[in-house]
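Q: Here's a chain of 86 amino acids. Please give me its 3D structure as tokens.
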Amino acid sequence: MTTKTINMYERYGDIIGLRYLAESIFDNIGDNIDEIVVDFDKVEFIGRSFTQEYIRQKKKQNAKIIEINASSSINNMIDWVVRTWK
């Protein structure tokens, strides 16, 4: 199994709110990746626009996506968007 880890803090900082940033998360992943680990360590906040696009981009991936080190506020934002976004 081939795994790629994306460190969100190193890539975008501790506050991530812009939709276009989510569009670039999965760029250049490659075709032979089975699992993508999205590491939210040190990220304090993600905005609704970012989260909506993150979920949209996540659904396009063939690889399994795993979020790690997400704070409760990040998990709550992801859960809220999933529940309310149609």
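Q: Can you summarize the key feature?
A: The radius of gyration is 12 Å.
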